[in-house]
Write a structure and sequence with these properties.
The chain is mainly α. It is globular and about 45 Å long.
């Protein structure tokens, strides 16, 4: 069993690293967003968290996964803009339309969780297709 897990990790190294970076960035994003909600609207707070996460993720991903180039930076930024719009749309739909601006950690976690998980997979596969991998 351990050999199969190790083999899978080796075969999907870039995905595993991207996932771990995303988990770290997500934790930063959640903390920044939750604190920001005390001062600004929930969509603006989400944007602040996502922007903070983007900056951290870009630097970590270009160090560990993607080849750094102007083209890669532009693709990363454009896909990030798409992801930001998608994340904000998801937060709005979940928090405002579905839960009618209810306060509470459960509503926050459902909205934030959906706005993280859905763009994560979409952006990973788009970036994998468009940005060359870093050579070891």
């Amino acid at each position: 069993m351990t050999n199969k897990i190790n083999q899978w990790i080796k075969e999907h190294r870039s995905f595993v690293i991207y996932f771990l970076i995303s988990v770290f960035v997500t934790l930063v994003d959640i903390v920044v967003t939750r604190v920001s909600e005390r001062f600004v609207d929930i969509v603006i707070a989400n944007t602040i968290g996502v922007v903070t996460g983007f900056v951290i993720q870009y630097f970590l991903c270009t160090r560990k996964i993607y080849a750094g180039s102007i083209k890669a930076a532009v693709i990363f930024f454009v896909t990030w803009l798409f992801g930001l719009g998608l994340a904000n749309l998801i937060v709005y739909i979940v928090r405002v339309l579905i839960f009618a601006n209810r306060e509470g950690i459960i509503y926050y976690l459902i909205g934030k969780g959906a706005s993280i998980a859905i763009p994560f997979f979409i952006l990973y596969f788009i970036r994998k297709k468009l940005i060359p991998a870093k050579k070891d």
